[in-house]
Amino acid sequence: MHSTSLHSTPLHFTSEQRLDDGVLEREFTLGEIPGTLWTPESTAPVPLILMAHNNGLPKAQPRLVARGRYTAANGYAVATVDAAGCGDRPRSAAEEQARADIRRAFQTGEPVEHIDDIFESLVGPLVHKAVPDWRTTLDALLALPGIGGPVGYSGWMALGVHLAAIEPRIVAASFYAGGFVPRAQREEARQVTIPLLMLLQWDDEGNPRQRALDLFDAFGSKEKTLHANMGGHTGTPWFEGEDVNRFYGRHLKAVSGKP
Questions:
Q1: Among the listed residues 40, 15, 10, the one whose alpha carbon sits nearest the alpha carbon of residue 27
Q2: How much is the pTM?
């Protein structure tokens, strides 16, 4: 395996495998950041999509891996990482306590307002800890041969709102409205002006739909699309993957000049 350097932080590829559809899947480390990069068979540089899972769940989560492989097979470089406090990275005592409190609150049926307060104490700090790792990753990946931009974002909405508001290299985003969004990011949504697509599960038991609709309304984007489907948290229909790829085709491939 080889490494590439950006400033003082080298990116090391630690393993690779070629999948049946031609996608190259590589594990990497970037300092303390572990990640996975999927790239398609291509003779020209391809756009990059950063893909994150809700509330710091691991990058190896099967649904995220399936989305990453599928998206790469459609002509994109796709990267995911376990940022600070996420996945198997070390967690603070406060984070562990908040996660335990959330599990207990759901088990005992505590009021939504109380559960929201616990989520606020967990997700807000988690977003701010994760953002520097994602920006460091973005720097390193754009320095690799075969990745030419532009950059899109997919997945965890709380993180994506903050990144889209402060990171000018991200030009389009698709959000999954299945996770808690802290108050600061709900306010920040007004600063997000890039094209976006939000996927909403209408019967998501842990995420009141009105809160997601209010957030969608708050985004400052002139082009924003909402897809709502019946079903619970993990019931997003398979065809939404095709729609997401068409969305990226308009905003990433069209900009890069790729068909």
A1: 15
A2: 0.89
